[in-house]
TrEMBL record:
Organism: Rhypophila decipiens
Residues passing through the membrane, by range: none
Compositional bias annotation for Basic and acidic residues: 121-130, 148-161
Highest taxon above the source species: Eukaryota
The protein, known as: Uncharacterized protein
Low complexity bias: start-end ranges: 37-51
Region of interest (Disordered), residue spans: 1-130, 145-184
Ranges annotated as biased composition (Polar residues): 18-36
Length: 313
């Protein structure tokens, strides 16, 4: 096969050859040569019917066999909608459906009273009708029997395929490993293969300890909840519950002449401490320095009251 010309060379040749050049250089000899080359190319194309080379970038460059992914046959696509086939033989009929019995055909296509009585037809037209009716009965009987035989064959083949598929799957699942799989598989320690979790011998003691810890935590929560209730109960004595108390509180806080009797800042915060009091209040602990005697007395009385009442104040 001759080598194909480069795309760049073909584009340059087409760009150089303009339509005016074609018209100027056109001659009978040129047309004859073009017809001859066209006929020769047609003969070569028709004569060379060899295989077309497949480029390497094509998926068909290397032929690979497709592995079977399903046992179901791949049916070609059909345009349109195919009606759903009827269930001629229902499951309630059992192994011998009623449509296969002769009584079914006799019920659907009954004979006339003259045929049942064994009389002869009156004329040729009636004889022809009797003959056609008998032909329809025979065709119906044979059709139903054929459908029943085909259904039994289909069900038997389906059961056989299902049993074979299940047996093959079971055999593939229970087969031993191949030598190549054994030799190429990663090493797994024997202790990793043991997946059984042994029972903890100290599980009951641990459960008892966990129960005691849980009870202690719940007791702490209960004490904190009881102390919070006691604090709320003690603080409830200062709650404003009626309009008179609200009005008195507003008057004391937002009164107009509440600072009228004060002469200096000492009336608001009390007298300043003297040097004798400061010299007497000498401590070596930072907490004691910041805490006055009155504060210590209040805290001591509060602790005694909490011990007596059993609740936090």
């Amino acid at each position: 096969m001759p080598p194909r010309p480069a795309i760049a060379g073909v584009q340059a040749a087409l760009r150089a050859a303009t339509p005016s050049t074609w018209r100027a250089t056109a001659s009978p000899a040129t047309s004859l040569i073009s017809r001859y080359s066209t006929s020769t190319a047609t003969q070569e194309t028709s004569s060379s019917s060899g295989p077309v080379p497949v480029p390497p970038e094509s998926p068909n460059y290397i032929k690979l066999h497709e592995p079977p992914q399903s046992s179901e046959p791949r049916l070609p696509p059909i345009r349109g909608h195919v009606p759903v086939p009827r269930q001629v033989f229902t499951s309630r009929d059992g192994n011998r459906p009623r449509r296969v019995s002769p009584a079914y055909v006799s019920t659907i296509k009954p004979k006339t009273a003259r045929q049942v009585a064994g009389k002869r037809p009156r004329n040729d037209h009636e004889a022809r009708r009797w003959e056609l009716a008998e032909t329809r009965r025979k065709a119906l009987t044979e059709g139903l029997q054929g459908l029943w035989d085909r259904k039994r064959t289909h069900d038997k083949e389906e059961r056989r395929r299902s049993f074979t598929r299940a047996r093959n799957n079971q055999a593939a699942a229970s087969r031993p490993e191949r030598p190549d799989e054994v030799l190429t598989s990663s090493s797994i320690g024997a202790h990793v293969l043991v997946t059984e979790v042994p029972l903890d011998p100290n599980r009951f003691e641990d459960a008892e300890k966990a129960k005691l810890a849980h009870d202690a935590k719940q007791a702490v929560k209960a004490d904190a909840r009881r102390d919070a209730l006691c604090q709320m109960y003690m603080a409830a004595g200062k709650f404003i519950v009626d309009e008179d108390e609200l009005e008195a509180r507003i008057h004391s806080v937002f009164g107009e002449n509440q600072r009228e009797a004060a002469e200096s800042i000492w009336n608001l915060h009390g007298e300043p401490p003297t040097l004798a009091a400061e010299a007497a209040n000498v401590h070596y602990n930072v907490a004691d320095i910041r805490r006055k005697d009155s504060n210590r007395t209040v805290l001591r009385q509060k602790a005694v009251a909490e011990a007596l009442t059993g609740g936090k104040l």
